[in-house]
Amino acid sequence: MRKQVVGNWKMNGSTAVIDEVLDALKTERHAADVSVSVPYLYLGGAVAKLAGTQYRVGAQNVSEFGDGAYTGEVSARMLKDVGCSLAIVGHSERRRYFAESDEAVIAKLARLLEVGLYAVVCVGETLAERDSGRAESRIEAQLARLHTLMARGAGPDRFCIAYEPVWAIGTGRAASGDQIAAMHEVIKRHLGASYAVLYGGSVKAANAASIMALPGVDGVLVGGASLDAREFGEICRAAG
Ligand code: 13P
Fold first, then answer.
1. Most C-beta atoms within 10 A of its C-beta, which of 1, 23, 146, 157?
2. Is the pTM of the predicted complex or chain greater than 0.90?
3. Cβ < 6 A, ligand 1 pocket
4. Is 100 a catalytic residue?
5. What domains can be seen in the chain, in order of their start residue?
6. Which has the closest alpha carbon to 162: 203, 220, 96, 210?
7. Spatial distance between the Cα atoms of 4 and 22, rounded to a whole number of angstroms
8. What span, in angstroms and rounded, lies between the C-alpha atoms of 168 and 80?
9. Is 91 marked active-site?
10. pLDDT tens per residue, range 11-37
């Protein structure tokens, strides 16, 4: 399976950062599928800058509703209209700060699938869940609802899973190789081996190659390091 590298800028970046990071990215070709998920406002600019390259642009969220009277929301159709290729759904920061439920995540995924956009569906456990031995059951509960959509034809070409332990995000403390391999195995057992499973949580140039060499790891979802042109370039190279 071709490796995937997905950058998630979160609520960071500017037109200057778009110029710096994406111009640097464009100077190289990578063997992996590489995309950057930028804030909504910058989607159009990023799409224009990466036009004609191998790189794809993604959103970090999407509305669970179709077009209509939902002030402040952005629909899947609009993402597609501006040239976006994918979107992240269910990130733990959205679950935590915006009370996004498992049901809402599934509704968002359904909207993306309807318009033909690829989805990166995030799952992950908190430290309390891991410490109390509930990590696996939490992940399985998050995955369980996907089966309805899979039964309706959402195959491995339509979405992948990003395993992001909440305690590893932005902490500089990535999960260990054993922890990552074990959870990726759980996810693949649950969904089927053909679904790509990415790892996210403190991925840097220094650990990207060893993480991507682990069994069951089909790529990485990169937060902070995706805003640094040099770091991100090295991570993309490590995926090749
Ligand atoms: P960091 O790489 O900054 O830990 O963030 C991970 C993440 O949340 C990517 O979606």
1. 146
2. yes
3. 8, 91, 164, 169-170, 200-203, 221-225
4. no
5. 9-220+230-234 (3.20.20.70)
6. 220
7. 17
8. 31
9. yes
10. 999 999 999 999 999 999 999 999 999
